[in-house]
């Protein structure tokens, strides 16, 4: 069972992700700010992190920089889940250290593919 940390400040988006991940047999951890996400990642060492770029305290680029520079968290795959969908945003995210990128609204079948390409497998509850 995958342990997934979702760092997202929009409560509606967070609830949607939590509901969907729960239906996929995942344990979810939630953080509404970048700093809370960093703390949760270091404490719980999730299987994967789904990280929004636009957060109220520090942005996702600062979060990814912190996570990838720490021995404890540098190998945790991180997918940017963001409304930043302009030309060049995906390249910028990958250069910053994100393992993959997805623009909102989230296409869950694409997210499953991206997660499995990073070694995190999920399946519907039976």
Structure summary:
The chain is of the alpha/beta class and 126 residues long. The chain contains five helices and five strands.
Task: Write up what this structure looks like.
It is a single chain. The chain is α/β, with parallel strands linked by helices. It is built from 5 helices and 5 strands. A 5-stranded parallel sheet has the order 2-1-3-4-5, sandwiched between helices.
The count of strands amounts to 5
Rounded mean pLDDT score: 94
Estimated share of beta-strand residues: 15-25%
Q: How far apart are the first and last residues' alpha carbons, in Å?
A: 13 Å
Major β-sheet profile: 5 strands, parallel
Going across the biggest sheet, name each strand in turn: 2-1-3-4-5
Large-scale geometry? globular
Helix/strand structural class = alpha/beta
User: H/E order of the elements?
Assistant: EHEHEHEHEH
What's the helical proportion of residues?
40-55%
Rg measurement, Å: 13 Å
Count of helical segments?
Answer: 5
Low-confidence stretches: none
